Amino acid sequence: MSKVLSALMFSICVGAVLCAQNPAPAAPARGGRQAAPPAAEQGGGRGAQSPASQRPPQTTKPQEYAAEQVRAGRTVFSSQCGFCHGRDAAGGESGPDLTRSSVVAEDLRGNKIAPVLRNGRVDKGMPAFNLTPSEVAAIVAFIHDQKTKAESEQGGRRAVDLADLQTGDAEAGRQYFNGAGGCAKCHSPGGDLAGVAKKREGLVLLQRMLYPTGGRGGPAPAPATVIVTLASGQTISGKLAYRDEFVIALTDADGWYRSWPANQVTFMVNNPLEAHAAQLGKYTDDDMHNVLAYLQTLK
Amino acid sequence: MKGIVLRVAVLLVSCGTVAAQGLDPATLLEPPADSWPMYHGDYSGQRHSSLGQITPANVHQLTLAWAFQTGQTTQIKATPILANGILYITTPDNVWALDARSAHQLWRYTYPTNQGFHIGHRGAAVYKESVYLTTPDAHLVSLNAKDGKVKWDAVIADSKKGYWSTNAPLLIRDHLIVGVSGDFDNLPGILRSFDPETGKPQWTFYSTPPLGAPDSISGGATGGQMWMTGTYDPALNLLYVGTGNPTPTLNGKMRPGDNPWTCSILAVNPDSGKLAWGFQASPHDTHDWDAAEVPVLVDGNFNGMPRKMLMQASRNGYFFVLDRTDGKSLLTVPFATANWTSGVDKDGRPIPSVAKEPARDGRLIAPDEAGGTNYRSPSFDPRTGLFIVSARDAYGIYFYKPEHGAYGWAGADYGVYGNGVLRAIDYQSGKVRWNHELGTGAGAGVLTTDSGLVFTGDASGNVMALRTSDGTTLWHSAIGSVGTSPVTYELDRRQYLVVGGGGVLYAFTLPANK
């Protein structure tokens, strides 16, 4: 069991499994001015950094839109998107700053943005939108226009910079990691966390340290697992595919989704992230900053 | 049995009077069984129904009576309003009038395209022969209840400044009381009363002073928007309403002191718009924890003394019981994970810990921005004395640095983790009697009935009936993401449960008698 645990730690939760069920494109966040990496590379390199902790990605291919369309887009965007993403698209209550979004940076006349609008990102709380093609085109025009404006300005309204997070003591963090924090029960600096600071930094590293889900800096590595025992005594194990009060489901070794009424089988879910959730009530703010400082040394 | 006979008699009588003259505001004092005539069902905000046809013994037989498709992807977050056999349901910019027996659409009204936030809508209000809708650009529209035609359109607040409205208006006699939202801009908090006949403004109450006003007590804070529907005590003639967060939101440096009356529970005279008393649930809030949640009014004993109480499960994770005659605290206790206080002061107010204000390097704080609970309605069950609320145990990280400025949000915060739990609280002790896991984030409100049932929804799209005494699940149906607070009423001697799943409204009832 401990082998399973260590393999899964710093990985994925039930929510990320649900994410896999929704074919909405994941956030291929990236930095710098280089061309977009393919989606498969999201987890590594600079592909996993927080849009809010670094220089925003630049538009891959500059586009021009008619002022009239931008104006129409402002109306639709403000009413449908503005609460979460801000009226200026630079972040609102719960939604990210779209002027720093790599989806927007890589978008060419809606080819990346439109699918997100149509499908939503249900795992992250974004609903699907039922918009006309002209409304979608207008929103795309408005977002690009806002990004162009943002690129000419300094700073970010809701930015958390890498430098802001450098208040921890790495040695104290190492001691907490190996001692009171209990992190070493599942993780090791030479194992799963080797080079973690090269893969992620800043806010995303902090968020994934606290509670790693697929939405934060790249895909979720591995799912929670479940062992289901049928009335006959037969046991079936696999990745936890779905769970609510009434249904338990897994993806079996052949890749098939299989579900049962939760009250007609017994099952044991192994969700290693429970330890992360429990730790949130134990960290002091100093502990949190110290462990981050320690993780930043694992290059 | 006697009770049922009586209720039928009342129903027949009230049907006659109500149908003849529209909704008389006096009936709101004691809503008949064949209605759900206002947002909370009645003025108390208890969301507790005396209907008893659906019981713990037969609830497993509940079956679909009808489903109404709005045809929209927008989730229904509104409470349906029922008057005169007609059900009114809203989403931003939209009202549908439906036959409550069949879901047959009588009319639909769509407000013109506008730039206000289309984030959600709580519901309509009815008065005589009118139906009222607040709009994303902070207008109040009066519609003819018979055909949905516009009677008048009044401006509540200037949407160009950043106000919007999702509010279900509260009707008190001849006052139609509406609130607005607006915490992306530094705007004074306003609540307004309109003449329901003409749309003429009657009064405006400010929770934070209008810009340039003398004698400010708010410490420089704006905000404190009253975006949720209040409750009302007819005997005391007081309207109770919760206020939202101060602005700038995460930057507390620019607004020293407690910042009254933000994050507060207020008692306001509905005739004059004057403040009677205020209680601050979160003095000097820096975490966006509105105290806009429903102020539930309960008459009962507290520590052996009969009391007129007000109860609120607040977004900051604390459960408050106040004496609603004067706003004095009776109980303050956390009901969800909260790590942001250094204690409770002599007046029952949580004391915010300076160490848990947003900071440049981040602070790990419980609850997160979405809070220990939110706009979804709780319910109070008088038989068990349980206050039942959809709660969250959640953590977020909060950042503020001077570069974030002093306008609007003025900071950054990110949710880390949250778990949803339906929580039954003993109102006299604050002790949790039972918990029922709901999943990562449930968006449904709660309804209780006299027969001992709790209705709510979980995070996976199930509407559920639980036994009030212990929280055991007795029935469920997977209808899609439940964003409404369920309602119930009786028509043709059948009790209905009406609840939204995604963009569809569902009605459940027991199988018809043979």
Explain the overall architecture:
Chain A has 299 residues and is of the alpha+beta class. Chain A is 35% helix and 10% strand. In chain A, strands 4-3-2-1-5 form a five-stranded antiparallel sheet. Chain A is flat. The two termini of chain A are 29 Å apart. The model of chain A is unreliable at 1-54 (pLDDT under 50). By secondary structure, chain B is mainly β. Chain B has a five-stranded mixed sheet, with no helix packed on it. In chain B, strands 27, 28, 29, 30 and 31 form a five-stranded antiparallel sheet that branches. In chain B, strands 2-38-37-36 form a four-stranded antiparallel sheet, with no helix packed on it. The radius of gyration of chain B is 22 Å and the shape is globular. At the A-B interface, helix 3, helix 4, helix 10 and helix 12 of A face strand 29, strand 30 and strand 35 of B.
Summarize this structure briefly.
Chain A is of the alpha+beta class. Chain A has twelve helices and five strands. Chain A is flat.
Strand order of the largest sheet of chain B: 1-32-33-34-35
Query: End-to-end span of chain A in angstroms?
Result: 29 Å
Radius of gyration of chain B from CA coordinates: 22 Å
Quaternary: heterodimer
In total, how many beta strands of chain A? 5
Shape assignment of chain B: globular
Structural class based on helices, strands and sheet pairing of chain A: alpha+beta
